[in-house]
Write a structure and sequence with these properties.
Layout: H1 3-13, H2 19-27, H3 29-44, H4 52-65, H5 69-81, H6 86-100, H7 102-119
Helix pairs in contact: 1-3, 2-3, 4-5, 4-6, 4-7, 5-7, 6-7
Length: 124
C-alpha cells in the first residue's frame, strides 16, 4: 500500500473512522490501491456537479434505505463535517423511508441522535 493511498483515504474520511479500510490496506494493498481509485478519486475526492456535502447526504439516504448502520454513521458524520445541518441529515433519512421503509428511518434517527449527543448538539 502506498502512503499516498492511505493519506487519500484519511483525507476523504473527514475524521469519520472506518477501520475496515485499514484492514483492507494491510491484507490486500493492491486491492486497496484500486479501491482508492473508485472511492476517493472517482467519487468523494473529486469536484463534480454535486458538492461533496450533497453526495454525503445522498449516501445517508441510501445507507438508511439499505439499513446499513456503519454507512449511516460514517456518512452522517461526514455530512455534518461538511456543514450539513442536523435537519438536512434528518431530511435525507426521512426521504429514504419512502423506498427503504421505517426501520431505516429508525436506524438513521437513532444514529443521528447518538452522533449529536456525542458532539453536544441538540436535534431540534
Amino acid at each position: 500500500m502506498s502512503k499516498s493511498a492511505k493519506q487519500a483515504f484519511e483525507q476523504a474520511s473527514l475524521g469519520a473512522h472506518n477501520s475496515a479500510y485499514e484492514k483492507i490496506a494491510r491484507l490486500d494493498p493492491e486491492y486497496f490501491e484500486k479501491l482508492k481509485g473508485l472511492y476517493v478519486d472517482a467519487t468523494f475526492g473529486r469536484d463534480g456537479a454535486l458538492p461533496r456535502k450533497i453526495r454525503e447526504l445522498i449516501m445517508v439516504g441510501i445507507t438508511c434505505a439499505l439499513n446499513r448502520p456503519r454507512g449511516v454513521r460514517l456518512h452522517s458524520e461526514r455530512a455534518l463535517a461538511l456543514g450539513a445541518t442536523p435537519r438536512e441529515v434528518l431530511e435525507a433519512m426521512e426521504t429514504a423511508a419512502i423506498p427503504g421503509g421505517m426501520p431505516g428511518l429508525w436506524l438513521g434517527v437513532e444514529t443521528l441522535d447518538e452522533i449529536l449527543q456525542r458532539k453536544g448538539i441538540a436535534l431540534e
